[in-house]
Specification:
InterPro entries: AB_hydrolase_1 (IPR000073), AB_hydrolase_fold (IPR029058), Carboxylesterase_BioH (IPR050228). This protein is an alpha/beta fold. The protein is 41% helix and 16% strand.
Length: 299
């Protein structure tokens, strides 16, 4: 899971609820000074939340972009029904289309730049392929630390362990078991108490049915890169240099197949947005600026 470096919102940001035709979604909203150059929608991955992007809010707003980071259905402060069918990929992608429509309504029809981390890459891909009309309702698509198909072998085994545990254990029991596994494997990291408490609270706020559906998808998602390559949308593949979920080489190959730019963030693993937010923000801002919609007003 992504670990945000801090939790205090910058002065440019606040917590909001986004009302859509698909229901309400918890979000963080950052506003630049003056007229925004563009809008961005940031979508977190498996076991994540909007806070995974908190360190990007200030630098992106400073570059003139209005930014929304959201919790997907079943995540943290958005919540959702306790039925696995409610978390089919189609449901997530229809949510994303509804969120996109809401942001466009708020921004005077300006299409937002879409950033999808990890599992959300599947969601964004499906939403793009479901979108109708020309042009598409986004200015660009960034696939952040995600891959062409199912996750790698090591993470598949962890997902299968979680799937086996969810019907038999509470989320608190699973949390404690995960902490013990990390300590036994020597991968436990000492965190500030505030961050450790947040990660615990966020985990307990997950809807178990959502965790089940997402984990099942992570180990079974087919390769749909060739379909996505046909979508007329500027694309960026952004990777940490030591991603453990999808090898960077695999992400580079995906970028080639998409005719997309590929940027590797030094010193980052699976969550460049949280681990190296400065470099990630620079890369996103440069990409968005190069592909900003002609209708956007520059500040």
């Amino acid at each position: 899971m992504s670990t945000p470096p801090f939790l205090t919102l910058p002065a440019c940001a606040r917590s909001v609820r986004l009302r859509t035709v698909r229901g309400e979604f918890a979000a963080l909203h950052a506003v630049p000074e003056g007229i925004a150059r563009g809008t961005a929608l940031l979508v977190p991955g498996f076991t994540g939340s909007k806070e995974d992007f908190i360190a990007l809010l200030a630098p992106l707003a400073a570059d003139g972009f209005e930014v929304y980071a959201v919790d997907q259905r079943g995540q943290y402060e958005t919540g959702g029904p306790d039925e696995v069918d409610a978390y089919a990929l189609e449901e997530f992608s229809l949510d994303l289309l509804a969120l996109t429509a809401e942001l466009r309504a708020r921004a005077g029809s300006r299409p937002p730049h879409l950033v999808a981390h990890s599992f959300a890459g599947y969601v964004a891909r499906d939403a793009v392929l479901r979108a109708t009309g020309t042009p598409l309702p986004w200015s660009s698509l960034t696939l952040l630390s995600t891959g062409p198909a199912a996750i790698g072998h090591g993470e598949t085994e962890r997902a299968k362990l979680l799937l086996a545990a969810l019907p038999a254990m509470t989320l608190e029991e699973i949390w404690q078991a995960m902490q013990e596994m990390d300590e036994a494997g020597g991968v436990s990291v000492r965190l500030e108490p505030e961050i450790a408490d947040f990660l615990h609270r966020r985990w307990l706020a997950n809807v178990p049915a959502a965790l089940t559906a997402m984990a099942q998808r992570l180990i079974s998602e087919p390769d749909r890169v060739d379909e996505l390559a046909k979508a007329p949308l500027p694309k960026l593949v952004l990777s940490g240099e030591t991603d453990y979920a999808w090898p960077v080489e695999l992400q580079a190959q995906m970028a080639l197949r998409l005719s997309a730019e590929h940027v590797v963030v030094p010193g980052a693993g699976h969550s460049p947005n949280a681990e190296r937010p400065e470099g990630t923000a620079v890369s996103l801002s440069a990409f968005w600026t190069a592909h900003e919609d002609d209708r956007a007003t520059c500040s």
